[in-house]
Design a protein that fits this description.
256 residues; alpha/beta; Spore Coat Polysaccharide Biosynthesis Protein SpsA, Chain A; 9-stranded mixed sheet; 9 helices; 22% strand; globular
Length: 256
């Protein structure tokens, strides 16, 4: 099996038919989908079950205790059996039915690299525009990039670095650690994911859902950056920059 597709979810039922449809429609079928429900209170899991039999291979996990996006992804990783792992957020979707074909060709043409950098569509309101990350063809360029989301990377499963759990700010630290853990990269110019910025209930933008988690997550991010140890000089340089920025973010938040 080539691909494991891991989808963390919390109360995104309204977007799931679009997501599962985009996965089910992929022409390339050598994949498994791992859906991890992070204690949703809507009918997300029932929608997953409706689609499960239509997919080549699907696993559904219902967490008993909330672990937020990082913990949900980690739970899915424990079941990943594909050679490569991709992540999709549950309110996003693949851009068309040839995405896995495209990634597969990039992998094969580049002698099975550790990581493929994935371009994407930024979708907000009625606006949709492609974000081309194909110029980020080295570890140094990728680690310095602002696009830190895990769904902008397809990674050899054996190389995937776990995420911080029980926090909102899991992406930057994992981004640096992930780039430190790989040696070879390739790029995909075709936009693979439609990044949905029209969801006011997403974990990253819903202030009510975040509650008091936001400030504690800033502290957690800074602590995780302080604890992180990397080997590559380009990753160490980025780590130092992100530590300084994280400390400044905390100062701004507490002095509001």
């Amino acid at each position: 099996m080539m691909f494991s597709i891991i989808v963390p979810n919390y109360n995104n039922a309204q977007w799931l038919d679009r997501l599962f449809g985009s996965v089910c429609d992929q022409r390339r079928k050598d994949y498994e989908l791992i859906f991890v429900d992070d204690v949703s209170t809507d009918d997300s899991y029932e929608i997953y079950r409706k689609w499960a039999d239509k997919l080549p291979k699907a696993y559904g996990l219902k967490l008993g205790k909330k672990r937020w996006n990082g913990g949900a992804r980690n739970a899915g990783l424990a079941f990943a059996r594909g050679k490569y792992t991709l992540f999709l957020d549950s309110d996003d979707c693949f851009s068309d039915n040839e995405c896995l074909d495209t990634i597969g060709r990039v992998i094969e043409q580049n002698n099975y690299p550790d990581l493929v950098r994935l371009s994407y569509y930024y979708c907000a309101g009625d606006n949709e525009h492609p974000v081309d990350l194909s110029a980020q063809d080295t570890i140094e360029k990728i680690v310095q990039g602002q696009d830190v989301a895990c769904w902008t990377k397809c990674v050899k499963t054996e190389k995937v670095v776990p995420f911080a759990e029980n926090t909102l700010k899991e992406d930057v630290v994992q981004h640096i650690a992930q780039l430190d853990a790989v040696d070879t990269v390739a790029t995909c110019a075709k936009p693979i994911v439609r990044w949905n910025r029209n969801n006011p209930n997403s974990t990253s933008s819903n202030i009510q859902l975040q509650g008091g988690k936001f400030l504690s997550s800033l502290y957690r991010k800074y602590a995780d950056l302080l604890d992180l140890r990397v080997n590559k000089p380009e990753c160490q340089k980025e780590l130092e920059k992100r530590r300084a920025q994280a400390l400044e973010d905390i100062r701004k938040e507490v002095t509001r």
